[in-house]
Amino acid sequence: MSSISNSTALRRQRQVLDHLRGKGQPDIDPKATISHIAIYGAGIMGSGIAQVAAQSGYRVTLWDVTQADLDRGILAIRTSLARSARKTNQPADWVQSILSRISSTTDQIAACSSADLVIEAIVENLSIKQQLFSRLDKVAKPTCIFATNTSSLLVADVSAKLGEERKQRMVALHFFNPVAVMKLVEIAYMDGTDPELLALLKAWVHDIGKVPVLCRDTPGFIVNRLLVPYNIEARQLVERGDATIEDVDTAMKLGAGYPMGPFELMDMTGLDTGYHIMKAWYDTAPGLSGDPRFKPSPEMEQMIRDGYLGRKSGRGYYVYDK
Hints:
Elements: H1 2-21, E1 36-40, H2 44-55, E2 59-63, H3 67-88, H4 94-99, E3 102-105, H5 108-112, E4 117-120, H6 126-137, E5 145-148, H7 155-158, H8 164-167, E6 170-175, E7 184-189, H9 195-207, E8 211-216, H10 223-239, H11 245-255, H12 262-269, H13 271-284, H14 298-306
Parallel strand pairs: 1-2, 1-4, 2-3, 4-5, 5-6, 7-8
Antiparallel strand pairs: 6-7
Helix pairs in contact: 2-3
């Protein structure tokens, strides 16, 4: 019995390693199709995506509403690259060579005029996302691929105001925070998505040093569909007084082997992010709307109002040095 179990475990390990390397995938050169990427939103996610794309040799145009927003995004990229350069002993011109591939603009239309791939990473508001994509659809190349980095909305809803041909070239590319570190990208597709497009995007994700997983367009995709209920149960344990925050985190690290506990993770990803996902699911998600499990608790809503959003605000479930 043990030899069979060991053989199965080794086979699964090989399968995971093959997936990480992209083994068995079609031999596609994504740079033959994608050379210019327009990224909308210069916040934590948008600037992170811009960084990894530029590091992998792609030309990037970063858009945001104000020049101040763009300046903060470029500074975040520069800081992250400088940190990486020190750790990996890169040559003196390494940071600037990557930054030279990134341009920035507050002109929404100009940003995508020659783009092969548009990635949206703006506020998690369905109406605002729909308006953006509808506007870009009128000026982007017919072959341009549209992608949303949403973590709570359906691709079908975000693309609702697009023409049918563009919808076939619309997906979610869900990166994880911090983008420069986290290896996973979820590619969520609709029933009418072009299979060749999915193969191209899988190759592109591998080319930027990440690992793609495919998922049909369903609330939360894979990770958040599993993670959000887990986080909810952790919060409810504490809100009922059954355990402390510290003990829950310790239990999951030492008992389940997780690298961090649920409260540490929620602080890292941002309480506002989790809140918006839960609210979207409770309000509108097919099969989940009205489910009391996903209604944000009064305690969580108070933390959001108080600005306790986690690491990025200096305080969440724990207090951090800014």
